[in-house]
Amino acid sequence: MPWVLILLMTIQSFSPGNADAFADKMEEYYGFNLRWEKRYIGTWMGATVYGNNGCTDRVYLSDQFYGELGDDDLWKGILAHEWAHVSQGSQCANNEHDADLIALEMLWNAKEFSAYFRYAKFLQEQWGWEPEECYARR
Ligand SMILES: [Zn+2]
Fold first, then answer.
1. How far is CA 72 from the centre of its chain?
2. How far is the CA of 81 from the centre of ligand 1 (A)?
3. Residue 103 contacts residue 117 (beta carbons within 8 Å)
4. Tens digit of pLDDT for each residue in 3-24?
């Protein structure tokens, strides 16, 4: 079977149930309890870890996140990025590059290869990363 088909078979669309299952799986790699909840927020991509008093211990996802990430598994990379911010603790603010490196590392370690390559593509297209930057922590 061509590798493209194998990758496609692993893609899951976003749903609350799939997000919970993904959180359960990823906890082993992050080493702490991964939480998310739905809440209205106005940030880009509709996901954040920021609360009223700065960095929090959970990820907030808005309707925008539910709507825009549809049938693609980019949502796993975004969640991995936000949980990386949680792992940064009080250093979570404006620590985007490190959060992206952590997200890629965690996706790779968890063998979430489809999500890994989708997020690497996103980083290259959206932020102009060079392909080799995506392999920095592997
Ligand atoms: Zn971020």
1. 12
2. 6
3. no
4. 665 555 567 788 889 999 999 9
pTM for the predicted model, two decimal places: 0.87
In angstroms, what is the span from residue 5 Cα to ligand 1's centroid? Answer: 31
Domains of the chain: 16-134 (3.30.2010)
Encode pLDDT of 44-97 as tens digits.
Answer: 778 899 887 789 999 999 887 777 666 678 999 999 999 999 999 989 988 999
Instruction: State the distance from the centre of ligand 1 to the C-alpha of 12, rounded, in angstroms.
Output: 22
Beta bridge partners of 51: 54
